[in-house]
Design brief:
Blueprint: H1 4-12, E1 17-19, H2 26-30, E2 43-46, H3 50-62, E3 67-70, E4 86-89, E5 96-99, E6 104-108, H4 113-121, H5 137-143, H6 150-153, E7 160-166, E8 172-176, H7 181-187, E9 196-203, E10 209-217, H8 222-235, E11 240-248, E12 263-271, H9 278-287, E13 293-294, E14 297-300, H10 301-305, E15 317-325, H11 330-340, E16 349-354, E17 376-384, H12 390-404, H13 422-429, H14 432-443
Parallel strand pairs: 2-4, 3-4
Antiparallel strand pairs: 1-2, 5-6, 6-9, 7-8, 7-9, 10-12, 10-13, 10-14, 11-12, 11-16, 15-17, 16-17
Helix pairs in contact: 8-11, 11-12
The structure holds flavin-adenine dinucleotide.
């Protein structure tokens, strides 16, 4: 139990608000995106500025509290919240400034990607992020950042130029290629292990209107489509990104009624190249195996970025498993087809996100993100709005993962794992793990920041 007088004194030193058990908004304040996560923190602090973050870190350290840091709250394993300790919520740190001349955007640590997309789109530019715009910039970036622009522009971390970080000792430093370069290296893939990022500086790219949308094929064509996809996407121009998905067609527009609720295999495309070439680039897609639907259209990049937000609102049950994949063998494809046919709920899915093009041009030891040689990040998610489906979606996810894991590269994208333990974290960083431990020992030797895919100092 926290001493109420100490908490009161702490609260009086802040610009932001403190929420505790018994407060009317305690239950809404402890919620995160994944409704499977149900944790009861001792104190939640809504920081208003960097000074609040520094004071909160000091308070957690002095009182030896378990400390969780919440950006967008999307993490599958619920790493933005903890039991009993202190949660530092960054959602009020949401300032954004675009520098159109320098082609950069400065983003405060609690922004969501939709805020960033909105701000940069006004200048006809974007920086790589994920595929759901309600995800936090903080967690997504620090783990790597995979999305529609990966092949053309690299991971989110490949576009990170600078970060302001509040360290475990409560002091703020800047990390970049020239200032605290060891910290800058570790932040790019090492997650929230090293401190709280209060401000990110990203490079921008001229991305404005794109050609995007899904192509659907019949589920019984899945093995054939996957075999085609594994060759096609690797040879495609880097202006074209396409992630493979097994899915159920949502029951509403823009999908034709006859497809509503139907199981399909799909590729979700994003083409950012010369509009005059778009038709030619998509010709082989339209012509392959008579798709049920080819829904690619020209649209603002922000429309693509938010296309799935309505389908996946906060407050549903999510169970995650992931792997990196170097090659999609025929044997692996057979397992994918078997589990796709057993999708436990309409929102459950398997995605393969390409990691090549610009992301492959960064060396394996250049950032903490180790799997630069992988071709795809594979993620299996059991999803349902109904808590009664909890066992069903987790059983399917685990069984699916166990069947395809032997065909994987070994580790997984840390942002798409749940709580799978230290061995899995080590497998995901491979040779970079030892250097991460060194940096952790320097910046957080007592492991204050441990509610994450933890690098044990
Ligand atoms: C629906 C959905 C779709 C997704 N799609 C993608 C995708 O397309 N591409 C992709 O790469 N990932 C994707 N993800 C995974 C996502 O990257 C992770 O869930 C990530 O952890 C979310 O970040 P957050 O800030 O929202 O999460 P939070 O739960 O708030 O935080 C996650 C972790 O990051 C730390 N953290 C957050 N902000 C900061 C900060 N400012 N400073 C220090 N540490 C911080 C937290 O302490 C915690 O350990 C998706 C997740 C969901 C739920």
């Amino acid at each position: 139990m926290l001493n109420p007088e100490l908490v009161q004194e702490f609260a009086s030193q802040l610009r932001g608000r403190v929420v505790q058990p018994g407060d009317t908004d305690y239950d809404s304040s402890r919620k995160v995106y994944n409704a499977m996560i149900d944790r009861m923190p001792g104190v939640i602090v809504y920081c208003r500025d960097v000074a609040d973050v520094m004071r909160s870190v000091d308070f957690a350290r002095e009182q030896q509290l378990l400390l969780a840091v919440r950006g967008g709250g999307h993490n599958g394993g619920g790493l933005g919240v903890c039991d009993e300790g202190l949660v530092i919520d960054l959602s009020n740190l949401h300032g954004i400034r675009v520098d159109a001349q320098q082609r950069t955007v400065r983003v405060e640590g609690g922004c969501l990607w939709r805020d960033v997309d909105h701000a940069t789109h006004a200048f006809g530019m974007a920086t790589p992020s994920g595929i759901i715009s309600s995800t936090g910039v903080g967690g997504l970036t620090l783990g790597g950042g995979l999305g529609h622009l990966t092949r053309k522009c690299g991971l989110s971390i490949d576009n990170l130029l600078e970060a302001d970080v509040v360290l475990a000792n409560g002091r703020m430093v800047t990390a970049s290629a020239t200032e605290n370069p060891d910290l800058f290296w570790a932040l790019r893939g090492g997650g929230g292990n090293f401190g709280i990022v209060t401000s990110f500086l990203f490079r921008l790219h001229p991305v404005d209107t794109v050609f995007a949308g899904p192509t659907f094929w019949k589920p019984e064509q899945m093995a054939e489509v996957m075999r085609w996809y594994r060759e096609f996407i690797v040879a495609a121009p880097e202006d074209l990104n396409g992630f493979f998905a097994t899915m159920t067609v949502p029951p509403g527009p823009p999908f034709p009624e006859e497809l509503h609720g139907k199981l399909v295999c799909a590729v979700m495309w994003c083409y950012t190249g010369d509009p005059a070439q778009a038709d030619a680039v998509f010709a082989p897609v339209r012509e392959f195996a008579s798709p049920l639907m080819h829904g690619v259209q020209q649209m603002p990049f922000t429309a693509l970025q938010s296309a799935f937000d309505g389908l996946y609102p906060p407050g549903e049950q999510w169970y995650w498993r992931a792997d990196f994949v170097n090659e999609l063998s025929d044997a692996a494809i057979a397992e994918h087809a078997r589990f796709a046919a057993m999708l436990p709920t309409p929102k459950s899915s398997m995605h393969l996100y390409p990691i090549d093009g610009a992301a492959h041009r960064v060396g394996q030891a250049d950032t903490a993100f180790s799997y630069r040689d992988a071709r795809w990040a594979e993620v299996i998610v059991g999803v349902s709005p109904d808590a009664a489906d909890r066992a069903r979606i987790s059983d399917w996810t685990k069984a699916y993962w166990e069947a395809v894991h032997p065909y994987s590269a070994g580790g997984a994208y840390v942002n798409m794992m749940m709580d799978e333990g230290d061995q899995r974290v080590r497998a995901s960083y491979r040779d970079n793990h030892a250097r991460l431990v060194e940096v952790k020992r320097k910046y957080d030797p007592a492991n204050l920041f441990r509610v994450n895919q933890n690098i044990v100092p």
